[in-house]
Amino acid sequence: MGETSKRLLSALVMVVFFLVAFLYAGFYYIDLFFFGGFIIYFGLREFYDFSHREESQAFRGIGYFYSLIIYLVYYFQFMGVQQNIRPPSWVLDISGLFNTSGFSPVIALLVLLVMTSFLLQIIKRPLDGALMSVASTVLATLYIVIPIGHFLLLLGLPYGEYYVFLVCVITIISDAGAYFGGRWFGKNPAGLKVSPKKTWEGYVTGNISAVLCVQLLNYLWITFASDTELPLGLLESILLSIVISFISVIGDLAESGLKRDAKIKDSASIIPGHGGMLDLADALLFTIPSIYYYFKFKEVLGFPV
User: Fold this and answer.
1) pLDDT (tens digit, 9 = 90+) per residue, 74-109?
2) What predicted TM-score, i.e. pTM, was given to this entire model?
């Protein structure tokens, strides 16, 4: 089987798993929770592996522990805003505590993660490599867990299901369009040291593909979904597609920079045709929080979201 066939087949399998977890609320979205946990675990493991240095290495146990707690916070916040299912009262109580004005449990846990990492460095390791050990421990959680948590926050918005499809379509189609556009039409290198094989033709093809597929998504949503209108107008959807497509490129290049620093081609080899979990989800780690805060900014300005 060729590389392109492997890439398409493995992507299709992941999409099917995602749709099942995303569309089936089941037992309080527990399938979606475990799907996100699966991504987080393998993403953290890959990040810890390629940030490993002889003189410094992340505190993996602490990283996994705080990442799980932070992810649980997002999950409880998500369950607290559900309309179609009624979580147990104790879940709503915890969610209400997390949503108390002026208290941000995620920020508090990140502060504790930094402090704990420095404490372990002081107690267990020599001072050499302290900067990289602590930084890689904290960055892994910021880079992977926070965006996955924002996926749940995005889904919790009034038009959350549409927004999730929107960001996934833009991100995935941008990547696919850039990949095939570069293979078929690519002649002018973009000149980026972090990814020298990428071409301007690929980026433009990815951007155009994303804009067109979002319009197709909007048509299908109006035609087959229960909503009779969309929270985005035509011009807004086009501009948002362009911006999020650009951000997806940044996410892809950011992960490429991390791999080049680690002198590896792929973050792992668990997904045929793609490499590792970070190779597959790199762009989404940037686009998910970006589109979430775009809609929250609209909400602050008084526009419906």
Assistant:
1) 998 888 877 667 766 766 677 776 666 567 889 999
2) 0.89
The model's pLDDT over 30-69, given as tens digits with 9 standing for 90+, comes to: 888 999 999 999 999 999 998 888 778 899 999 999 999 9
Q: Which two tokens stand for residue 179?
A: 């990949």
> Tokens at residue 169, please?
């379509």
233 shares a domain with 133: no
Q: What whole-number distance in Å separates Cα of residue 259 and Cα of residue 273?
A: 17
Q: How many other C-beta atoms can be found within 10 angstroms of the C-beta atom of residue 305?
A: 17
The partner residues of 301 in beta bridges, in order of sequence, read none
Contacts of 49 (CB under 8 A, 6+ apart): 267, 268
Q: Contact 267/233 with Cβ under 8 angstroms? A: no
SS3 string of 107-135?
Answer: HHHHHHHHHHHHHHHHHHCCCCCHHHHHH
> What's the domain range around 210?
159-305
CA distance 245 to 174: 6
Number of domains within the chain: 2
